[in-house]
């Protein structure tokens, strides 16, 4: 069982660990972990709200973020639940582009590939939505409904605040089937620019369509994947 609760500033390092375990497979050293922590913190602070999932012993094992579109609600888009550390933002990006993190060679290779995948995100294809599901990252060895618990909390929050359209960006290198099993519909797809067989995908969840029929019972779905 997992407890899903709002993100706290002291969760940043654990979220960095979750980010690693959701997207990378190579060994990492302390320098790599510093970048993972900083990246996760910047991502979270750019979003309007973040939830973490904790085990019974209060270990953070997953997180999920949401970012509101100002065209949907300027008030919600201007409200951020995590304190913004603008100095940390600038320091992180400057340090990254100047290659001061001194990442290990295996991690550098995987992170560069991850960064190239992010650049496949096309704003025009992504389109406008009330709320963007920005990140779902979790430990691979927890396949006990962790992802489902986080997505359920996310959708409940979206419904409570009046959002109609939730969208997320992923690709065929990630566990995109996770969302299809939970009622998300594919609305856009585009091949990678590198000519590979991989594709960028946008999924959408229309909350208005489930207001009358009721929210799907996601808790019964035990499969758990990451974005």
TrEMBL record:
Residues 2-208 form the N-acetyltransferase domain. CDD domains: NAT_SF. InterPro entries: Acyl_CoA_acyltransferase, GNAT_dom. This is GNAT family N-acetyltransferase. It comes from Gallibacter intestinalis.
């Amino acid at each position: 069982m997992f407890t899903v609760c709002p993100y706290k500033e002291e969760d940043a390092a654990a979220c960095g660990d979750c980010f690693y375990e959701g997207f990378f497979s190579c060994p990492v050293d302390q320098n790599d972990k510093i970048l993972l922590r900083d990246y996760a913190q910047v991502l979270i602070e750019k979003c309007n709200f973040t939830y973490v999932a904790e085990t019974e012993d209060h270990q953070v094992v997953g997180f999920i973020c949401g970012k509101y579109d100002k065209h949907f609600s300027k008030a919600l888009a201007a409200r951020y639940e995590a304190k913004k550390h603008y100095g940390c933002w600038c320091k992180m990006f400057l340090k990254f582009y100047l290659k001061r993190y001194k990442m290990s060679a295996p991690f550098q290779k995987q992170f560069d590939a991850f960064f190239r995948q992010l650049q496949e995100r096309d704003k025009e294809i992504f389109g406008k939505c009330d709320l963007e599901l920005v990140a779902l990252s979790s430990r691979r060895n927890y396949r006990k409904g962790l992802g489902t618990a986080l997505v359920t909390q996310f959708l409940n929050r979206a419904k409570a605040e009046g959002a109609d359209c939730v969208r997320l960006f992923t690709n065929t290198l990630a566990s995109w089937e996770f969302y299809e099993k939970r009622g998300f519909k594919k609305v856009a797809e585009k091949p990678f620019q590198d000519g590979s067989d991989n594709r960028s995908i946008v999924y959408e969840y229309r909350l208005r369509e489930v207001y009358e029929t009721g929210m799907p019972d996601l808790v019964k779905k035990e499969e758990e994947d990451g974005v």
